[in-house]
Task: structure prediction
Amino acid sequence: MDNFRDLLIVLLMLINLMLLASSRIRYCIKIVAFQGLIVGLVPIFAAENGIGIGIILTALCVIAVKCVLLPILLQRSQIIADVRREVDPFVGYTASIFIGIAALVISFWISTRLPQMEKQVSHIAAPAAIFTVLSGLFIIMSRKIALTQVLGYLVFENGIYLFGGAMLLENGFIIELGILLDVFVLVFVMGIAVFHISQEFNHIDTDRLSQLGDWNAELPEEIKK
Amino acid sequence: MQMLLISLLVFFIGGVLSLLFSRSGRIASIVGAGSAFVASIIGLFPALHSLFSGVSQQLRYPWSMPCGSLSFELDPLSALFLTPLLILTALASVFGAEYLRSWSLKKSLGAPWFFFNMLAFSMIAILLARNAMLFIISWELMTILSFLLVTFEHEKKSVRTAGWIYLVAAHVGVLFIFVVFIMLGMKNGSMDFDKFALPPGSIAAASLIFVFSIIGFGSKAGFVPLHVWLPEAHPAAPSHVSAIMSGIMIKMGIYGILRVFIYLGPPHEWWGWLLIGVGALSAVTGVLFALAQHDLKRLLAYSTVENAGIIMIGMGTGVLGVALKSPLMAAAGFAGALLHVINHSLFKGLLFLCAGSVLHGTGTVEIDKLGGLHKRMPWTSFAFLTGSVSICGLPPFNGFISEFLIYFGAFYSISSMNGAHVFSSSAVIISLALAGGLALACFTKAFGMIFSGEPRSGDNSRFHESSPSMLLPMLALSSLCLIAAFTAPLTVSAFKYMLPQLTGMTFSTSAKALDIIIKPLWHVCFISAGFFLWLFALWLLRKLMPRSEVVEKTVTWDCGYCRPNGRMQYSSSSFAQPLTRFFNFFLRIRTLFKGPRGIFPKDSHYMTETPDIFEKGFFAPIFARIHDFLVLLHRFQNGRVQMYIMYIAAMLLILLIWKLS
Result:
């Protein structure tokens, strides 16, 4: 049981690295959906006092949202906006992998310095959670297309969820459900925004949206690039 | 006081109503201008009453604003500034209703009228406020509303630039005003004016506050070198707004300096010298640049700088008189300055309205494109003439009286003080005389080029006189200029109520000093009246004389050319050239000249422009450096959401690592 749980967590970390290295959006959506499934499963395997109905219901809920509902919504947006891949990210894919590895190292270092929990599920759960959070943030920062950024938010949220689940925080699940709702609304709004942006501009590059602001017009040429 | 509150309420309600009716330009204009007119008339009664009876009234309400309280007071000093404010607002609103009508199809007039009414509202609030918080809020309101009015034609790039310059200049000033009030309020921990006090023996603090108040309020009053916004903002604003801004709003700066001065205790001598120095610089620089301008409204804006300088010189003479314990010099200086506040708002308001009328009738205020307007716009021409005569300080109009008082103070100090202060007093006299002479040249140029001669541009068939509702306010101001001159002794005698406050003299001393000053004023009035009657008699004689000779009409400029045209006339730059060339070391006029060449010369042209040396030589380099530095920051604030998220994430990560290690 414990081995299977650790396997899931390792898989989660690998998924992060895969996400950092892939440019095709449909593939990314699938990976994130898979990550959602794993994240939903971890608490079930981590439960020590037996599997209660509450835990199962939460897990089902999480899996339904993260693995089914949101990916479907995202996929629809992807089809509507007709973007296949993130062609020109701010940080290249090879560099992203290296940064991801650096983030992994930092996460492990941070988790050794964290105050020790008594009921820690697994010694790699905390670094994995921090790593997921960091890679989600990194995706938000380094990618241009709105859809990839939404994926970044999802990964970010997965990390938080895993952290809560792994640390078995009190009332963790209630907070989790709150965050889940936030993410759901966020994806919803982003979906609408992506749809409208692609209708207006024929692209969904967020960096070009900055041209809508009027102060940007006075930027010197070399900075605009 | 209650009536003033009612007046404030009418301003406010009228503004909001015109905003509500903004769908129809006509109704918005009628409501906005009408309420401004009514409110001004209502407010005028208590203002005049307080000015001439010396009564002050207070009102105080608690306010939830930190450090703030709604304390108002109407005292003679406030009333002195309130009176021209309300007169000019009333007349400018009547003028503006007609003036703005040509825009009613293009843009909504509700907002401009709302801003106009609220501008008057905020200025009244400034004058009545007796709490620093209330004062600064009203001050800021005035700045922003006037900015919004300046950018009325915001679709033009030049107007937007002017608006920016104005906004930046105004806020640099506010910074210093904040410091002034904080320093004054520190001792008693209260921002109410009546609790303002300086710790005893804090001479340095008082001097610092005084200098800061000159910088802070001076940026509004238009002292050199803080005047750079005036020649930009006044031409950009609609003319009735320029009239308000130039006539009254810059006086708020003067008022601020005087109000702060009251709380500073006995002044030092060098305060007076500083005021005189800055004033002389403003007066001479302002009028020199006015002389070199080609745009009528820019010219008037520079002339405002000059007059602010004259007021400053008067205040400097007054402060010097207080410091030297000479009641007569103090009274003459302050009386001249205060009277010039009223007078300048009357004739500068009049001149800006005339400029508006010219712009309305011809579509331009470029002096070199106009000419011969006296035939097309006789009433405007008449009004402009009276305004010009007033502003040049010529009798029998009001500008003469206030400058006379300042001269009086300066000459008195030379003759009575055994030559100890010859230097400062002669600086006063010389700069006033120089400014007066140059102003005469400047307005001769403006009036002569615009109203006499022949039209300089070909297309002048649509030039027309303005309608009565624009002319009436102008003529009312013209007659007020004359009335103010003849009632000047009465006005000056009313200053006895505010002089004790300003100078620290007892009531009887100041009244006695004023009595001495008023005596020659009566003489001036009688002589002026005689002169006026004499002119009238001459005119009557000319009218009644039998016309034996045949009156023949011909073109003004003929000169023996076979086909003369308007462009052969003397131009405004050629008129001003002898003087501007003399002062060119200072003015730095830029000339673009391409002379005719060859046997059959084709194109040749000549152009001069006079950029403001303080703007180009002082502020532009500073702001360019600041801009260069801030552009570096654009690398960090580059409009990319991704970067901003990175800053937050990196910061949090660094904090986390720092906390854990």
